[in-house]
Write a structure and sequence with these properties.
This protein has 300 residues and is mainly alpha-helical. The chain is built from 13 helices and three strands. The protein has a three-stranded antiparallel sheet with strand order 1-2-3. Helix 2 crosses helix 4 and helix 6 packs across helix 10.
């Protein structure tokens, strides 16, 4: 790898984490993308200041031969544009060669949505398990209820602390992308599941200073992977073949819009920076309406 670029990649990652407040996953991805570029530049230039748009385009073309996914190319080019812009600000580059680096637009697929009937079957199953009094079953019931009730990301629910809760007003405070805090409401079923979990939380034997709301068997903060696996297993047998916590986020948003919720209210709930990101759920609702029309109308 080009040693100068490797050193810059480390500084760039520190900048993203400390000054820009990017999530750990984003920082890791961007750092990896710059290291990918560093490997490509080895032997092609002596000094990083020799970097130009032609080299960046050649690198992106090579990436496309390894991974044809438009989403990957879009992320990598975005990472490098951010990197070269930072290098210009830092005085490492006299001009920003990445400014004109373009990549294919990511194909936007309509997200899978779980039906209300399928969700009810899952909730009934979880409630039955929780009724046994087993602490993990009670915790898992709460996790699924809260994910659907709020539409929060899996990282956001795992990041909740006990002090993030406001049971009097039925709200939680979550830290989203870019370390932005938002307030999210939840309903009575989620509140009941939360109260049941809080009643058994101490049985996970947390340390006195442990602030995490969700705990694993060792009394530590529950990890994202554990929640992902839980939700994926619960959704595996649904007709949509959906999996993962993000499906519950898609489902919550779509069901809200189906029920007449305001688009901007849903945007605020989900923590989307752009209304355009939220608008995909209106397309989902329209598709569901069209499908229902085809199935029900005698002259469809």
């Amino acid at each position: 790898m080009h040693s100068e670029v490797v050193a810059l990649a480390d500084r760039f990652a520190d900048h993203l984490a400390t000054l820009r407040g990017y999530s750990a996953n984003t920082v890791k991805s961007y750092h990896s993308d710059v290291l990918d570029l560093a490997g490509f530049l080895e032997g092609k230039i002596d000094k990083f200041s020799e970097l130009d748009l032609a080299l960046l385009r050649e690198w992106l073309w090579q990436v496309s031969q390894r991974d044809a996914a438009n989403s990957t190319l879009a992320r990598k080019s975005a990472a490098i544009r951010s990197f070269t812009a930072w290098c210009q600000v830092e005085g490492v580059l006299a001009a920003d060669p990445g400014q004109r680096l373009k990549s294919p637009k990511s194909a936007r697929h309509l997200p899978k949505v779980v039906s209300k009937e399928s969700l009810q079957d899952i909730f009934d199953h979880l409630q039955t398990l929780a009724g046994t009094g087993e602490q993990v079953a009670i915790r898992n019931h709460f996790i699924f209820e809260m994910l659907y009730a709020t539409g929060v990301r899996v990282s956001e629910i795992c990041g909740l602390d006990v002090l993030s809760l406001d049971l009097d007003r039925n709200i939680i405070r979550v830290i989203g992308k870019g370390s932005k805090e938002r307030v999210v409401p939840f309903g009575i079923p989620a509140k009941d599941a939360l109260r049941a979990y809080l009643a058994v939380r101490e049985s996970f034997n947390p340390a006195a200073q442990e602030r995490a709301l969700l705990l694993n068997s060792k009394g530590k903060r529950l990890g994202v992977r554990s929640v992902y696996q839980l939700v994926a297993e619960l959704l595996a047998d649904t007709p949509t073949g959906a999996s993962g916590p993000h499906t519950l986020r898609h489902t919550a948003a779509t069901h809200l819009l189906d029920g007449g919720a305001d688009l901007r209210a849903v945007q605020e709930l989900l923590g989307h920076a752009s209304l355009g990101t939220t608008q995909i759920y209106t397309h989902v609702s329209v598709e569901r309406l069209r499908e229902g029309y085809k199935n029900a109308h005698p002259r469809a």
